[in-house]
């Protein structure tokens, strides 16, 4: 259940980050409110998850998920390019999170 909450937190963070561009420096009220709501929800959910999963594992997973998803959104929606080096780096980030979550004993009590 906690990994589901973490995934939802990542989704809220990604939506919030994706809204950054539309706030135009927080001069647009509705996108700014939506961004703050998304970030608030992401951090609220993370505060629940860190009760049972170590904060380092939570943050590594949250950050990596956000990086990969925001990069994909930037590519597909904002038409920003990703070169081979960026794609390789994103692959290494994904591999790192998989290794942490599957093989690390840090997440056990």
Topology, element by element:
Elements (H helix, E strand, L loop, with lengths): L1 H18 L9 H21 L5 H22 L7 H20 L6
Helix pairs in contact: 1-2, 1-3, 3-4
Based on Cα principal axes, name the global outline. Answer: flat
Sketch the topology as an H/E string, one letter per element: HHHH
For the record, the count of structural domains works out to 1
Q: Unreliable runs, pLDDT <50, ≥5 residues? A: none
Query: What structural class should be given to the helix and strand makeup?
Result: mainly alpha
Number of strands: 0
Helix content: over 70%
Distance between the termini: 17 Å
Tally of DSSP helical segments: 4
Largest sheet: none
CA radius of gyration is 15 Å
InterPro entries: EmrE-like, Small_drug/metabolite_transptr, Small_multidrug_res
Family: Belongs to the drug/metabolite transporter (DMT) superfamily. Small multidrug resistance (SMR) (TC 2.A.7.1) family.
Organism: Peredibacter starrii
GO cellular component, one term: plasma membrane
Question: What report would you give on this structure?
Answer:
With 109 residues, the chain is mainly alpha-helical. It has one domain. It contains 4 helices and no strands. It has helices at 2-19, 29-49, 55-76, 84-103. Helix 1 (2-19) packs antiparallel against helix 2 (29-49) and helix 3 runs antiparallel to helix 4 (84-103). The protein is flat. The mean pLDDT is 93.
């Amino acid at each position: 259940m906690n990994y589901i909450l973490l995934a939802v937190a990542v989704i809220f963070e990604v939506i919030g980050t994706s809204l950054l561009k539309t706030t135009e420096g927080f001069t647009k009220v509705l996108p700014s409110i939506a961004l703050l709501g998304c970030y608030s929800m992401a951090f609220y959910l993370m505060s629940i998850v860190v009760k049972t999963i170590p904060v380092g594992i939570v943050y590594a997973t949250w950050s990596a998920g956000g990086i990969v998803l925001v990069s994909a959104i930037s590519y597909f929606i904002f038409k920003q390019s990703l070169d081979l080096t960026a794609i390789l780096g994103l692959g290494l980030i994904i591999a790192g999170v998989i290794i942490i979550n599957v093989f690390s004993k840090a997440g056990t009590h």
